[in-house]
Amino acid sequence: AADFDAGFFGISPREALAMDPQQRLLLETSWEAFERAGIDPQTLRGSSTAVFAGVSYHDYGSRLQEAPEGVEGYLGTGNTASIASGRVSYLLGLEGPAVTLDTGCSSSLVAVHLAAQSLRQGESSLALAGGASVMAVPTSFTEFSRQRGLSVDGRCRAFSADADGMGMAEGAAMLLLERLSDARRNGHPVLAVVRGTAMNQDGASNGLTAPNGPSQQRVIRQALANARLSPSEVDAVEAHGTGTRLGDPIEAQALLATYGQGRAEDRPLWLGSVKSNIGHTQAAAGAAGVIKMVKALEQGQLPRTLHAAEPAPQVDWSAGAVELLTEEREWPSSPERVRRAGVSSFGISGTNAHLVLLGPVEVGRSLAVSRSAFERRAVVLGTDRGALLGALGAVSRGEVPAAGVVEGAVREVGRTVLVFPGQGSQWVGMGAELIASSPAFAESMRRCAEALAPFVDWDLLEVVSEGRGLDRVDVVQPVTWAVMVSLAELPSLCLNPRYGTD
Q: What pTM was computed for the model?
């Protein structure tokens, strides 16, 4: 969270210091999400791209009360929740909806739900969805500790007999969504398809922060209905699964009552939680679960859930066909049955979200057309993974030159600007040599002559070669236009102080 490349985003060091680290991480992961999708972020300026970002912590500002001089004026924008999404849109020039939301631990999955709705309604063409959690002060640790909600050793033992609380973690995750038809038409890689989503609220449960099993069942059924699927058509669920003694049994019973019913004996619902690997990343947790299941769909393997050798005895596992992924399993696919998975995320606010994913994995385009072109560039060459990783390591450590690495710098970063002069820049014979020596220039002049012919009583090519008529305003201005257009068609331009352009 502290290693933010402020200069990359055109942000001054003082403003960066005043920015909530969650804003910094959302910027970095948003940029990476675009590039991984084969999209140069700098080409999206003015597009109807949306940003939905979940952020639950708003405590960084309290650490700036004794901040260094010079951050005044940046504290408001650096710590206002709405700016977390708005800054991404501002810096990249995105003109779709920008929404920062806080539903607690379900924030980033709710963001995915809202992004999918935005795309389906046509208010956006692309949508970023995710969240970030950085705990700037220890308040959450002390509060959950007093509630006996934290694991003694910081490990999430989801659905395990020895579950003793959650392990809190920090993280950031950002997903990029696009309508499937648009992604295919635009040649963007499709890692998975969001088939259906739903969200609801616990309402009046037996406590403000206590989960509500019937509400969880309803949100699952709503997502399945939205996906037009039956529970038995889904193979696995990435659960909320924090490892708490109250929440896990309620969630397991909801899964048994929905996905666990009407299944073939040899096709149970496989259950796991990424929180057993990385802890509970809170506002980023739902998106983290999506990423895990997307990778599982891609690899055709269901990863095991850690620290759950013995299922929780508080759950009646015989009530349905649901089994914990205590070991890694192959995940077969066939034309008759594609891989499908559910992802759950439930917020301390009582807001629940569930989505259904399926995998039509497609091959991505070359990295050469999916990365922004910066001033310093490097290419690594290798015949196997080890060689490539070694070369990448050398680049990251600055150990260049190195085997398998080609590095260089662009002399000038920017775009070519052509300024077309008006009347008064002409001279007799301008363009004549280029017509004789440059086929591209000559062809462009010929097309310009054809375009002008119906409107003038003179011939463009004759005027250029003979110089007659350049004293007439109705001749010189169209001729100058044609020369400038044709110069722009040349493969390369070299400025010449005497002749203007050669």
A: 0.74
